[in-house]
Write a structure and sequence with these properties.
Blueprint lengths: L1 E4 L5 E5 L14 E5 L4 E6 L2 E6 L4 E5 L14 E4 L4 E5 L4 E5 L5 E6 L9 E5 L5 E5 L4 E5 L5 E5 L12 E6 L4 E6 L4 E9 L7 E5 L1
Antiparallel strand pairs: 1-2, 3-4, 4-5, 5-6, 7-8, 8-9, 9-10, 11-12, 12-13, 13-14, 15-16, 16-17, 17-18
């Protein structure tokens, strides 16, 4: 299920069935919210649901579990102002769709480090961020899937990771990394250097 809480942490409602039986979802792993349109996207691998914020079904792509469909093994979703991104095939590609879930293009990620647990985010410049749990790093790609930079490596000190399994970016380009193995969230301030170097920097905030 998806649980909905108020700003004060009070429980409001749930979306999906509580307790056994056939529900809307089988195993939801990631959500994204389009506040402007009032849409909720739920990744229920290998399916993607689009609902309104009350849980009313609007659209679905991908086949039921056990079948073949548009996705191979999607692990995370992220939302930009006009596109929905799905990290698929164990982190080896990104499916880019419009906000009605129509496929626009696929980006194959070069030099991929395959991992079952990968996180996805997009910044205000359109750069794509992928966290790799097995390598304890975050890689940054541009909109054409060219590798721009990476940061992090295995360790327990500040700025190091141990199995980063999820990430999220806010409107001011802060990146929040779920440093799962170290039982913490680390926050970085992103900055983009000049167009000649085409590098993205991340400073611990």
């Amino acid at each position: 299920m998806v649980f909905v809480y108020g700003p004060d942490g009070s429980f409001l409602r749930h979306i999906g069935n509580l307790g056994g039986g056939e529900g809307l979802f089988h195993y939801p792993t990631s959500i994204a919210i389009d506040r402007k349109a009032g849409h909720l996207y739920v990744l229920d691998s290998p399916r993607l649901f689009m609902l309104d914020l009350q849980g009313k079904f609007l659209n679905r792509i991908g086949r039921s579990r056990g079948g073949t469909g548009e996705f191979t093994n999607p692990t995370d979703i992220a939302l930009s102002p006009d596109e929905l991104l799905v990290l698929d095939a164990d982190g080896s590609r990104v499916e880019i769709m419009d906000l009605q879930c129509r496929l626009l293009r696929r980006l194959s990620l070069p030099n991929v480090l395959r991992s079952q647990e990968t996180g996805l985010g997009v910044d205000s410049f359109g750069n794509i961020y992928v966290s790799f749990a097995s390598a304890s790093m975050v890689r940054v790609y541009n909109h054409d899937a060219a590798l721009l930079s990476s940061f992090g490596y295995e360790g327990i000190r500040i700025g190091e990771f141990n199995s980063p399994t999820g990430l999220w970016l806010d409107s001011t380009n802060h990146i929040y990394v779920a440093d799962t193995g170290n039982v913490r969230v680390q926050v970085f301030q992103l900055g983009v250097l000049n167009a000649v170097t085409q590098q993205v920097t991340a400073t611990l905030h």
